[in-house]
Amino acid sequence: MGEFQFSLSLGSPCACSPPQEISIIETEKIVITNITVVKGKRRWWFLLAPIMTVEDIDFDFENSPVRITLTREIPDLPPKLSRVLSVRVGQEVEVPYWTARELVGLGYAKFREEDVLSYNSLSKIHWRETIPASRQLPALQPNFYCLLRRHVADLREVSKHDQVKLRELERTETLVRDVVNCRIRKIVSLAASPTPSEELIQGLTYEERTLYTILNKTILEWKRKLLGSELKA
User: Fold this and answer.
1) Is 229 helix (H, G, I), strand (E, B) or coil?
2) Which of 62, 83, 104, 184 sits at a 20 to 30 Å CA gap from 201?
3) Measured distance CA(209)–CA(187) in Å, rounded
4) pTM to 2 decimals?
5) What are 46-91's pLDDT values in tens digits?
6) CA-to-CA distance for 9 and 157, rounded, in angstroms?
7) List of domains in the chain
């Protein structure tokens, strides 16, 4: 394959950094989004698709900063957590999520309400997603599924010795299946749309954006093969 100079618009996986242009890239995992002609030269615009696995997203989430409130003094902290020592009980501190989860699990801190899921919060999400005849795709916080996986895992653990929690786990799993199935159907419809709303795409979680990118690319390629390259997909 010969060498070409490409103008590339690269977006970060979390869509929080402005695009940047580079001139040399690998062709793998590249989605052609538009071709224009400028001053007699063909300019190719590419979007580097953030094909991230669930494991990739989970790793980033574990190391992302989160704020917690200390509920009691923490004895014998290692040097890497020395900044926590300067925070008094009742005050907030920002630490990596994996650290926060350990401290909360040991009873030294608590998460903010927006950083945890509950049956009530899932019920509200379920209600929005399952409104009859609704084709809307309600926005979810980007790390929704990361929080959901941990919430379900915690319920499974405590439900081993608690019948009340076991019933809550069963109801939660029903809500989760409904929500996921509803959103998958809507994402498929969104990926097949020739002019998807940017606002809707921004409302997807990290995992859903990956699914959308894969589906959109697959559908566009299938349409081109079906209709012929000279016809618009």
Assistant:
1) coil
2) 62
3) 9
4) 0.71
5) 334 447 888 999 999 999 999 999 999 887 776 666 666 678 899 9
6) 44
7) 1-50 (no CATH), 51-115 (3.40.5.50), 117-228 (1.20.58.2050)
